[in-house]
Amino acid sequence: MKRSRFSEEQITYALRLADSGTPVVDVCRQIGITEVTFCTWKKKYAELGVCELRKLKQLEDENARLRRIVADLTLDNQILQEIVRKKL
């Protein structure tokens, strides 16, 4: 999973700026992102604060790590099953 170069504080700051009435184009130009990125952030993090956003990112990172572990174990299991089949 690609790591964002923006911190949780920057994401929430951008969303709060737009909510306070600053045009989205100006917010995007100020932070250095595209409008598509801003819309993605808004869709994903609309009502989250900094703490909730941190927790969400930590959970996403752990979920990705656990998925990699499961994939590795599944691959190991398949290799061992093939070896057993070849011996019989």
Automatic annotation (TrEMBL):
Superkingdom of the source species: Bacteria
InterPro entries assigned to the protein according to its UniProt record, in alphabetical order: Homeodomain-like_sf, Transposase_8, Transposase_8_domain
Listed PANTHER family: LOW CALCIUM RESPONSE LOCUS PROTEIN S, TRANSPOSASE
Identification of the protein by name: Transposase
Organism of derivation: Variovorax dokdonensis
